[in-house]
Amino acid sequence: MARILLAEDEEILRMLVLDTLEDEGYEIDEAVDGQEAYEKLSENDYDLVILDYMMPRMTGLEVVEKTRAVLNKKEMKMMILSAKNQQSDRERMKEAGADYFMSKPFSPQQLLETIGEILGA
């Protein structure tokens, strides 16, 4: 099954997503802030990275930019979760290198369907 990195600083949301994905058989690594996510990305490869936009120590956007530029992981699929869903925000995320965007709030089923589409399941 696919290996996913989940970076979300809100514990309740992180646990909800973690439980949802583990129930579907995904292997999940988790990070509580952007810096921890970046450190895990520097050491591991993932089929998908799911990042909260607004996190301490490094935003999801900064993680995407740094992962693409410094770690040169251009093929890794990256999704940003955010309550910031203005068109300008979405364009900024795409410019940074995010492949996908999901607006908060979202349902577990919506998340699973999107991940299935991304991973071709």
From TrEMBL:
Q: Name one GO biological process term.
A: phosphorelay signal transduction system
Q: Which InterPro entries match?
A: Bact_response_regulator, CheY-like_superfamily, Sig_transdc_resp-reg_receiver
Q: Which residues get modified to 4-aspartylphosphate?
A: D52
Domain of life where this protein originates: Bacteria
SUPFAM superfamilies to which the protein is assigned, alphabetical: CheY-like
What Gene3D superfamilies does the record tag this protein with?
3.40.50.2300
One annotated GO molecular function is: kinase activity
Response regulatory domain segment(s): 3-119
Alphabetized, the UniProt keywords read: Kinase, Phosphoprotein, Transferase, Two-component regulatory system
Q: Which residues form a coiled coil?
A: none
Q: Which PANTHER family match?
A: PROTEIN PILG, STRESS RESPONSE REGULATOR PROTEIN 1
The protein's name in its UniProt record: Histidine kinase
Q: Which organism is it from?
A: Fictibacillus phosphorivorans
